[in-house]
Amino acid sequence: MNDVAGITSRSGCPVHGTGSRPSPYYHETMYAGLAKARRDEPVFYSPETGYWIVTRYDDAMAILHDHDRISSENTSDSASPVHQDAIDIMKAGNFAAEKVQSNCDGERHTRVRNASAQLLNVKTFSLMEPGIRDLVTKALDRLERRQTADLLADLTYELPAQVLFLLLGIPQEDMEKVKAWSGTRTILNFSPSTYDQQIAGARDMVAYWQYCVDLVRKRMEEPGDDAVSGLLKVRDGDDSVLTLNELTTVVYGLVFAGHETTTSQLTNAFRALLTYRENWEAICAEPSLIPFAVEEAFRYCGAVIGWRRRAKTEIEIGGVTIPAGGNIMLSFGSANRDEKHFEEPERFDVRRKNARKHLTMGNGKHVCLGAPLARLEMKIVLEEFTRRFPDVRLAEDAKIDHAYTYVFRAPRSLPVVMR
Questions:
Q1: Residue 208 domain-assigned?
Q2: 262 is a domain residue
Q3: Calpha distance 78→46 (Å, rounded)
Q4: In whole angstroms, what is the distance from residue 335 CA to residue 364 CA?
Q5: Quick check: 180 and 2 in contact, CB under 8 A?
Q6: What is the tally of structural domains in the chain?
Q7: Is the pTM here over 0.85, yes or no?
Q8: pLDDT one-digit tens code per residue, 126-144
Q9: Residue 1 belongs to a domain
Q10: CA 353 → CA 84, 291, 356, 377, distances in Å?
């Protein structure tokens, strides 16, 4: 199996940030540091990342809805300066992905999103439920006689990608290379990267982009019953709706975002449910609680812990002045545990009434189009898993490493005892 994010947490090197300020990179004690920041310094500058970290829910929500003074153009920028050699490789390979959705503002964002939303919506995803349930059933069949398992390697790693392939009409045999490319993109966009990683990554991104170009071309020649063909139908050859390159960029984004975060979110959900065992027993006894468990997992252990923005002009947030051009990190991991909005926020509770207020999938104009699909996948997985394996438990003394990134909470394993 390929490494989920291609990188590991920095083993043996405590991540504590600067002075008393918490590091925005994921680590197991991150939430305690963020709770202190919400009380003492809700907006602070992180020299470690070059971002102003915003920790309170209300401030994060205000920024997500402030499109006049705040830009989303840096959402997917490289975490490290990209070496010219890597840029040259991508140029030579005709890499032409554009800023069209999460990292795009204004009219273009509205136009591309409106076109995409005609395919990526609750109606489309609901029609996929039988196919998703079939994929889940087959995955669980492979666990039937196991005494132990790694739920990431054996279930959550491939399953979300299989669902995405179902949506996009991608052959299952392409799984390994698509997952590898996604791991490379995580390194380049969301984690510090070395020169060697950037050079190898640039070559991978050229191959990844060309794969998407070829996929779109094939659907133009032979349309099918899939989202790529549907987007081409929406476009109908009209560049004022979507240019062909914009459409290809949408596909390029989906091939990454459509499964990586769901892999992490499912794994995080299983870990929380099995750690706080009364919650697992509750959803086994009352499956009607599963949709609430999904939302509480998004809140308590969201796969997206930080999201980026940039100040267009000098602004004041939480009493702190951020200069024009200043990079901002919205700490969703902190906002989702803000005491002002969530009672006893450090407690994982599948009966929490307002868990859906979480910001893990964003909010406002840029809220994740794939959120309904992620919710549906998680619901089906938990329904089928609790029915068949109610006695599963975490392996004792299991050490769980995570990717070293300030954007995702991405575990690299989840050892369990199945029976």
A1: yes
A2: yes
A3: 17
A4: 16
A5: yes
A6: 1
A7: yes
A8: 999 999 999 999 999 999 9
A9: no
A10: 50, 11, 8, 21
